[in-house]
Design a protein that fits this description.
- With 174 residues, the protein is mainly α.
- It has six helices and no strands.
Length: 174
């Protein structure tokens, strides 16, 4: 299948999900943000333990980690291969880019802030695309170039995924 056909297949799948979507994604979105914060706690406890040389912070890290794992099971249904770790890292990177954007915003650099916010949102939507089955977890299933067709830039593919998932995930939908 060519890249354009892969992309069209993805868009068609997204549209069908959007039309008949009965899943409570607003709860899933809230849960995903909670998971982001638990990942942040894990990171902070690691660095605090190392900076202070105090292992009591590792205990807090482990408590947060166990809770994060339990909560991730509610969203990340496919535990095969790298889906679990990829999901965790997509959420973590999304959270960190959002924090960097917020720091630029505080400095008054809205242009730079918005660039980080866009990247953060794209990664967040990629997380949902992966976990809603819209992005196949097999690396060979998404081809970014074809011998017959012009290459599809990674940026275009990520943008397509992000905008499509963004339309499906509406946190204000009750």
């Amino acid at each position: 299948m060519t890249t354009n056909q892969d992309l069209q297949k993805f868009i068609d799948k997204a549209k069908s999900l959007e039309k008949g979507h009965s899943m409570d994604l607003s709860s899933g979105e809230d849960l995903s943000v909670a998971i982001m914060n638990l990942i942040g706690i894990e990171e902070h406890m690691f660095f605090t333990s190392q900076k202070l040389g105090d292992t009591k912070y590792i205990e807090v890290l482990n408590t947060a980690r166990e809770m994060r794992k339990e909560l991730m099971k509610k969203i990340v249904k496919e535990g095969q291969g790298e889906v679990w770790c990829t999901s965790k890292h997509l959420l973590s990177a999304s959270m960190r880019l959002m924090e960097v954007g917020t720091k630029y915003l505080t400095k008054g650099d809205t242009k730079e802030a918005n660039e980080y916010f866009k990247k953060s949102f794209d990664l967040y939507n990629l997380f949902w695309g992966l976990n809603l089955g819209m992005v196949d977890s097999k690396p060979e299933s998404i081809k970014l170039e074809s011998k017959k067709d012009k290459p599809v830039a990674k940026k275009d593919l990520l943008g397509t995924i992000s905008s499509t998932i963004g339309k499906i995930l509406d946190c204000c939908r009750e």
